[in-house]
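Class, study these two lines:
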Amino acid sequence: MMSLSVQGMGMTSLRTRERMIKRLSEQGIKNKRLLEVMRDTPRHIFMDEALSSRAYEDTSLPIGYNQTISQPYIVAKMTELLLETHPLVGKVLEIGTGCGYQTAILAQLVDHVYSIERILPLHKKAQQDLWDLKHKNISYLYGDGHLGWPDYAPYDAIIATAAPVEIPPQLLQQLAIGGVMVLPLGAGQQNLQRITRTETGFDIEKLEAVTFVPFLTGKE
């Protein structure tokens, strides 16, 4: 039986989540399976209890260490972009585990998620929270996302939850032919982009303006 902390009460209840899903649909998210997963995933457990009552608002919220949990719309949009051209995704590389919420969404929609986090306390906490939710198709790496995770490349998809000024070349090389990468790009003014690797190069789609934390090198 689902615990009350996961099931939610009051402003974290299923009714509140249903309102979030209605809003996402109105914002143009069409993937029904994605919407079901987001409705059923307890976003409130991935943040400080003091902020949990705001978990299903359409806003980003702090998770400590100068990092944020992305607003539900952005999580949904990036995931939908990843699945649109590749509905049966096998392996996904996620750059920036953060609190683990985006990881949890992906884990329910693809075969396996390989997730990298550069901030050790976030890396450890996300693993515990995701394990508590019984998501076992996730591999974790404490490391520098610029380097990717070559041991398991190539990936059907790559998603980055922080914005580089330029796309790290290692990530491009770890993307399978026909694979897609979804990430914010730019300094100051950022744009969400989807890159598809072809036999001869990379096709780039510039989508919408976004605001993400910067994509930093090294580990903390």
